[in-house]
Description:
The chain has 5 helices and 5 strands. It is of the alpha/beta class and about 140 residues long. Helix 1 links the parallel strand 1 and strand 2. The site of [cytidine-5'-phosphate] glycerylphosphoric acid ester (C2G) has 18 residues, from strand 1, helix 1 and strand 4. Keywords: Nucleotidyltransferase, Transferase.
Amino acid sequence: MTTVITYGTFDLLHWGHIRLLERAAAFGDQLIVGLSTDEFNAVKHKEAYHSYEHRKYILEAIRYVDKVIPETDWDQKIRDVQKYHADVFVMGDDWAGKFDFLKPYCKVIYLPRTKGISTTKIKTDLSEEEQEAIVKNENED
Ligand code: C2G
């Protein structure tokens, strides 16, 4: 049994996230996702739209995901790799090199990040569309 582990916020789930999970799962028989808690997101200077419970509910519905565990701090990865006997650690390459300290414990793989989509882009695009609608309505009034 080859176990893969990855971590993230996975807010406003999009196809870039799914591609990461799909590719990560392909490295083994089971995929564990360390999901950032709302409190840890604050540490990462991120504020998720969906709560931890809802992001967990969504991830658990994905065929590539076998288990979701809370990510509460930067220092839990070695403990998690040992606790869950993870053989492979996978992250998008926006994190390339940042988790090489795991190499003595498991295989470390950074996958190319999916271009053209991000949670930030979704929020920005929707905000701009809303602004354009407001301006259009004002011009029509
Ligand atoms: N990702 C991707 N392509 C995108 C967007 C995200 O491959 N277009 C990947 C990221 O590289 C990451 C995973 O999807 O591996 C989750 O992304 P985020 O939810 O943004 O995770 P992040 O905030 O980077 O948290 O301890 C690690 C951190 O918790 C990672």
